[in-house]
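Subject: Interface between my chains keeps coming out wrong

I've been trying for a while to get a sensible model of this assembly. When I model each chain on its own everything looks fine, but I need the whole thing in one frame so I can look at the contacts. Pasting all components below, labels as-is. Any help appreciated, I'm running out of ideas.
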Amino acid sequence: MKFGIIVFPGSNCDLDAYHLVKDVLKKEASYIWWEETDLSGYDALILPGGFSYGDYLRAGAIARFTPVMGAVIQFARQGGLVLGICNGFQVLTEAGLLPGALYRNAHLQFRCGWTYVRVENHTLPFTGAARPDQVLKIPVAHGDGNYYVGPEVLRRLKKNRQIVLRYVDAAGRESAAANPNGSLDHIAAVCNESGNVLGMMPHPERAGEALLGSEDGLVIFRSLLQYFDQRGGGSGD
Amino acid sequence: MTETGRHLWRRLGLNDGEYERICADLGREPNRVELNMYSVMWSEHCSYKHSKSTLRLFPTSGPRVLLGPGENAGVVDIGGGWAVAFKIESHNHPSAIEPYQGAATGVGGIIRDIFTLGARPVALLNSLRFGSLEDARVRYLFDNVVAGIGGYGNCIGIPTVAGEIAFEPCYQDNPLVNAMCVGLLPVEKLVLGQAPGAGNLVVLVGARTGRDGIHGVTFASEELSEASAERRPAVQVGDPFLEKLLLEASLEVIAGGLAVGVQDLGGAGLTCAVTETAARSGSGMELELDKVPLREAGMSPLEIMVSESQERMLFIIEPGRFNDAAKVFRRWGLSFAVIGRVTADGWITVKHGGRTVARVPAASVAGGAPLYEPDSREPEYYRERQSVDPLDYPAVEDCTEALLEVLGSPDVASKQWVWRRYDYMVRTCTVQGPGGDAAVIRLRETGQALALAVDGNGRHTYLDPYRGGMMAVAEATRNLACTGAEPIGITDCLNFGNPEKPEIFWQFRRAVEGMSEACRVLEVPVVGGNVSFYNEVEGEAIYPTPVVGAVGLLENPDQQCDIAFKKAGDLLYLAGSSTVSLGGSQFIKVIHQAVAGSLPPVDLALEKRLQKLLVQAVRAGLLSSAHDLSDGGLAVALAESCIAGGLGAQVTLPGHPRPELPLFGEGPSRAIVSVKAAAREKLLALAAKLEVPLLFLGEVGGDKLSISVTHVPVVDVTIFELKKIYEESIPCIMEQ
Amino acid sequence: MLWKARIEITLKKEVLDPQGAAVENALKALHYNNVKQVRIGKYMELYLEAEEREAGAKQVEEMCRRLLANPVIEDFSYTLTEAER
Amino acid sequence: MLWKARIEITLKKEVLDPQGAAVENALKALHYNNVKQVRIGKYMELYLEAEEREAGAKQVEEMCRRLLANPVIEDFSYTLTEAER
Ligand SMILES: Nc1ncnc2c1ncn2[C@@H]1O[C@H](COP(=O)(O)OP(=O)(O)O)[C@@H](O)[C@H]1O
Ligand SMILES: [Mg+2]
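Reply #2:
Try treating it as a single job with all components included. I did that and got this:
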């Protein structure tokens, strides 16, 4: 299985995603420059965290217009697997591949630290290796992770089980204190209708080694590998 | 010398003697552009004219040192073809004026110092000082400095992994913002800030040059006052996104061997970059200012030469390699321009609109400032304060109360409110983040890890600059040792008042003497640093505040230790010195609102043995936890280890008529360690071999911290209560 | 013709504005008790060449829709004035 | 009387505006080549009670100076209109 990691000007977790895929999972990975338009040969794309274009204007707003994003949209439409982490999530919402918007944390501060998220839908390519309601310890680091979506779309998200992760405490309960950014309905991750595009604010690539404090992030990546194996290796396009 | 002329150079911060020297070096009187170039380069900030002779006291060499002071940063060998570059620098004055941008650009500047050498920045640290948080303006400064540090570091993707913060009224209007950056480089890629080879191209890369920060260094070289606010330059705004591009492009150009010299533009802007690089190589340059990309139309040659616009770099490139370098700059979307050529004559010739607007000898501008050996006099407060016996203060009735009060004081309380606003995990190398004695980051490239800490105590240094200086070095390196790392080098930032006042210079001199002595005995070289003088507002100086940034090496990241208690039943020992004092302690400050008393003596040989013990014990896997004793003494250190581990402890201390002393007394060369019962014998044997005293304290366990002094219970408190006051104190003050 | 566009971007009414709330609290702490409903948005200024006002306005509108504002959470409005060179 | 204040806060001319520069580049990348000098600031709206316009304006001015704008790097301007209840 081959992962492509998109590099926008200002991405800074590209290296971390690469390290996780290559050195921890021992899978193939390459960086994809933002000017690239040919994504053939990749089985899954990662839009990494960071500050594309400095997050100037709005997080993800400018990166969404890079040449590579046209190709990413194509890739996703054809059912390819796309994982947006943090800034990658922001880019995906700006590009319209995912519903909603991520804006300023309610407490107005950047927040870095460990959070717990509960898997709300374990039937996706990104969560197939999780137990139902499994609680994962995965860190966040962002200033604009406050998820918002209008009431109608929210209803639709719930109905379609597109809310994939929610912030909870270690025991799996939702609370204001466990929500690091004020997200509507404690939403930490959402997917598109067909379930092949996932955006999440927590950083699973930072929770891939015991030395760093948690291996729970591997659940997301193992799910992808498992999904890919079960499907028999066809690529996304 | 005409009267108006005299006014001009004096207004630019030069004295008459310096002006005469300039005329002698030039063989004529300087024109305005030249005079301004001299003025910025001969400012204290760039020339170190009042500190250089004292800085020579530092031991700067050692088997690992590849690059000592004098370059953009120090470089230390860690084996396997890799080296670590690090440096600390102040941005105090800018932060006093505009805290967010001042702090942000401070971080930006120190990052450039690191990647200029070809090193990839892997960690940031900072040391901050503010006035009392009771003051609204201080809260504003604190909040915005923290936001600015985070804003820059988070965006560029370098983790901010450690730091320290203290609050004293003397920093009220003159906060200290010292930022440190650590980078990693392949030894063979090390590139210096030099400009060799006549005919080579001088290439300016990055931000366009604007009118910001003009005369910033002169501003930083005088005391703050109402009048200086008037004269202050346009505030520089940081652009971390641009710096990220500049960082990647620079490393790519350097890795490709495409540049023969690289220099960041910081204080004194283009003038500093061109004169320093040329002077280091004994060459000259011919510059065409018309080629410099400008942000504003109509900038004069003078403005272009001294602008301190951020996010700019100077590359010296052989003509044959220019196209390859240009490709890299273009790929990263950077603007760049060839602004001149290296010459062999040693002179910087500046042209604008076809005219020569300045022609100065590089060596004279960059290194010709006179050095001063200022007068030194022991200040009057010194003996007075020393003679205070802290035990003359009334005894406290309730030591538990006192512990909670000390633990909740902003100096001691958890700084989580600060560091949760820093991305300390990006790069996925942070094995120990903020909150412990030192940060630990693994190095993927070599399989090793670095321990990083920054320390300083202005109160101590004020009461006794010599011992305070020693203690700063001892504490920073001891923090490393507590994680199991062997110290391999330090960088220092010396924040002082006006050195032209003999009492201030005395503090400076004594502090550097103390630091140097500690470095010698602990065998840790000073490989770089920074001096920030003139930290005074309306004639009132800050406490003399040397800050030490220390770097340690762990050969194996799996063999490391932290401060958290791990397991009920583990045995607790106090390792090291048993001599403490309440002089200058946190306890006296918080409980008796006093800064007085004498510091305990410093036994550097014992310090060295203690650090050795810690390192060897961690490597041998003997320790469950190790925590250095500093602010708040034994009681606070125990509380912190309890909180970190969520586990209590039962401790009995030897008798003393005044329990405050063993509980809250402070002194160097001490650490608490916890060990599994099974490892006890080995630890005792190792301590005996290394001649480090071990005092049995008690046991880890339960949900309370209980301390008795000669079997009289003096502290009894739940971990829950300790944690609450420790963690909520600063958020509570800041979010009132 | 050179036009100066002034663009205001505000959070939609139904979106919570934590920054506005924080500023309102800070104003109250300074005893400005007669202030309410503080909302914070962005203000942008730019210059553009266009033959006629209408064409210029159309372009500003388009730029707002495509890039400058996020329609999920933001509204925008703008004015166009002739700019002196 | 209730007044609506609209406040524009802009970076001083000589102060670098990285956001504005990034947005300008982005607009150019979208082929809006006729655009220049993009500057980004803040827009604030608030309501306040004041007997007369002059008193209201004085207060807004004061709030800008004390809190809303950062005089070291920012300028501000505002308008006041009568608000319908
Ligand atoms: N306190 C100090 N201890 C050791 N070295 C110092 C100290 N202060 C300055 N230096 C050294 O002097 C040189 C000049 O410092 P500085 O002008 O701050 O460098 P830069 O212009 O690269 O920021 C550097 O190599 C620095 O390491
Ligand atoms: Mg430098």
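Reply #3:
Confirming on my end. The longest strand of chain C covers residues 35-49.
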